[in-house]
Amino acid sequence: MFSYLLRRSGLKCALSQATFSFPMANITISEVARRTGLRASAIRYYEKIGLLPKTQRVGGQRRYEGSVFNYLAVIDVAKRAGFRVDEMRQLFHGFGRGIPAFHRWQVLAQRKIAEMDDLIARAKKMKLLLQRADRCKCLDLEDCGKAFLARSVKKR
């Protein structure tokens, strides 16, 4: 299902090309970090905030199952799509039991798309202001202020 969503969204997951085959709950955090390019501290953080399931410990060391790579792939795509930690937490735990992954992605993606549309609109306005500032011929900032005030009065 996740591979389907990746292909459909056009996003690429850095972890999706990797092949992992490990015995259950026997992968050390350093091995997970090495294979994913993440820092061990990031993996511990994801576990602490509930994005990764709690792990078994052997001699005080975390031991992960191979499924950790699937969780990390979802986290990777969500991060690159601009999801905040609270949104990722909602993706994993914010829906009732039995809610399929595709529905979770749809709900959160629709919200994120609306957020991105607003961000793009604000960025376009910022660009226009910067282009005007780039054409400024004022000798001092007081003259700029007068010009800005004159423009705002014209718009009313």
Radius of gyration: 23 Å
Residues in helix, %: 55-70%
Q: Give the spatial strand order of the biggest sheet.
A: 1-3-2
CATH topology of the largest domain: Multidrug-efflux Transporter Regulator, Chain: A, Domain 2
Q: How much is the average pLDDT? A: 86
List segments where confidence is low: pLDDT < 50 over at least 5 consecutive residues: 1-6, 13-23
Going by helix content, strand content and strand pairing, the class is mainly alpha
Structural summary, described in words:
The protein has two domains: 2-91, Multidrug-efflux Transporter Regulator, Chain: A, Domain 2 (Orthogonal Bundle), CATH 1.10.1660.10; 95-156. The protein is built from seven helices and three strands, in the order αβααββαααα. The protein has a three-stranded antiparallel beta sheet with strand order 1-3-2. The protein is elongated. The protein is mostly helical and 156 residues long. The termini are far apart. A hairpin with a 2-residue loop joins strand 2 (56-58) and strand 3.
Strands, helices and their partners?
Blueprint: H1 2-9, E1 27-28, H2 29-36, H3 40-48, E2 56-58, E3 61-64, H4 68-80, H5 85-93, H6 101-134, H7 141-155
Antiparallel strand pairs: 1-3, 2-3
Task: Provide the descriptors you would attach to this structure in a database record.
single chain, 156 residues, mainly alpha, Multidrug-efflux Transporter Regulator, Chain: A, Domain 2, 3-stranded antiparallel sheet, 7 helices, 3 strands, disordered N terminus
